[in-house]
Write a structure and sequence with these properties.
Layout: E1 11-19, E2 24-32, E3 35-37, E4 47-50, E5 55-56, E6 60-62, H1 72-79, E7 83-88, H2 98-103, E8 111-114, E9 118-120, H3 127-137, H4 144-147, E10 152-154, H5 158-171, E11 176-179, H6 206-215, E12 220-223, H7 227-236, E13 240-241, H8 262-270, E14 274-275, H9 283-292, H10 298-323
Parallel strand pairs: 1-4, 1-5, 6-7, 7-8, 9-10, 11-12, 12-13, 13-14
Antiparallel strand pairs: 1-2, 2-3
Helix pairs in contact: 5-6, 6-7
Length: 325
């Protein structure tokens, strides 16, 4: 009687290496109505597929992907490598075409959630990137007036933070992206005499911003540069880090500014902060640096090689420390 009440499997995959959460095991797996079945029965309609020698894993997610053209071609680039879910943490929504907009949120394409524009302070990242580069060359000549309160928003005071979050909610954001950039040296860009300052948000405002975002049902993901930024975000209750310090290697400030400590890792774990490393360091970056100097000296090549080693060592060390907690 109990067997007759079991759901009928639409498909049974047999003989494959199945990911269990702890590792791969050879097992059968059945699905019906888009769900994996732990108990099931078969019928003459059940399709049995032998996947011996293959590996079966959950659909992958890309937690940090700036998609400006969500079309069928780009969707298949994700599908081909098994990515079905994407977080898009900062987007100039007005720069999307009607076709691109139509692909966001469709059940038959890659599932994209977006923060739309991020929250920062004047002259801080990503404002210069949008105003000086993306606006003129990617978004058809978009100017500051087009991009402000669309591609980036300000959060200098509690009042402005509330106003920004209300606007973000009305624009349909699904989570909030915030920017901290070496905030241990924070000073407002308009008062510190450096028009190119990129310190991001005032670290003293982060706890208030997170509380207000959570009150509106919005998770918060943070761009961080230094281990101090990480500590600020963890104590404030940020939900995710969108980078790990050192994502482009060892900065001029030195390795200690970006090397996480056991205390940092413990704090992130205790506050249940998800981490998306988003490492940008790779062989192509160093190849471009080598090609930038047509006749590099042996000393320059040695320095570049040493920087590359330090960067990779750091990017292995930080996640390894986090995993221990």
């Amino acid at each position: 009687t109990s067997e007759r009440n079991l759901p009928i499997a639409e498909t049974v995959y047999s003989g494959g290496q199945i990911w269990t959460g702890e590792g791969f095991e050879i097992s059968d797996i059945a699905v019906a109505n888009g769900r994996i079945l732990t108990s099931y029965r078969t019928s003459e309609l059940t399709v049995e597929t032998d996947i011996s020698g293959k590996f079966l894993t959950p659909a992958l997610a890309n937690g940090h992907q700036h998609i400006t053209n969500a079309n069928l071609q780009n969707t298949w680039q994700f599908f081909d490598v098994g990515v079905y879910y994407v977080w898009n943490p900062n987007l100039y929504s007005d720069g999307l075409s009607a076709e691109s907009r139509a692909f966001y949120g469709r059940t038959d394409t890659v599932d994209v959630e977006t923060s739309l524009g991020g929250v920062t302070e004047p002259k801080s990242h990503p404002e210069p990137l949008y105003v000086d580069s993306l606006g003129p060359y990617v978004y058809n000549g978009a100017t500051f007036d087009d991009l402000y309160q669309e591609a980036f928003h300000y959060g200098r005071t509690p009042e402005e933070i509330v106003e920004t979050l209300e606007r973000r909610s009305s624009q349909g954001t699904e989570f909030v992206k915030i920017y901290l950039l070496n905030s241990e040296d924070y000073s407002p860009p308009e008062t510190n005499g450096d028009p190119t300052s990129t310190t991001g948000l005032n670290p003293e405002n982060i706890a208030f911003l997170v509380e207000e975002a959570h009150a509106r049902g919005l998770p918060v993901i943070a761009h961080v540069e230094s281990r101090y930024d990480v500590e600020v975000c963890a104590r404030a209750g940020v939900d995710f880090l969108g980078h790990l310090p050192g994502y482009y290697g060892v900065p001029m400030r030195g390795v200690d500014s970006v090397r996480l400590t056991d205390d940092d890792a413990r704090l992130l774990a205790e506050n249940n902060v998800g981490v998306i490393p988003t490492y940008g360091l790779g062989p192509a970056n160093f190849q471009r640096k080598r090609e930038a100097d047509p006749a590099p000296s042996s000393e320059a090549l040695e320095t570049l090689a040493a920087d590359e080693r330090k960067g990779y060592e750091l990017q292995a060390e930080n996640p390894t420390r986090l995993k221990a907690f």
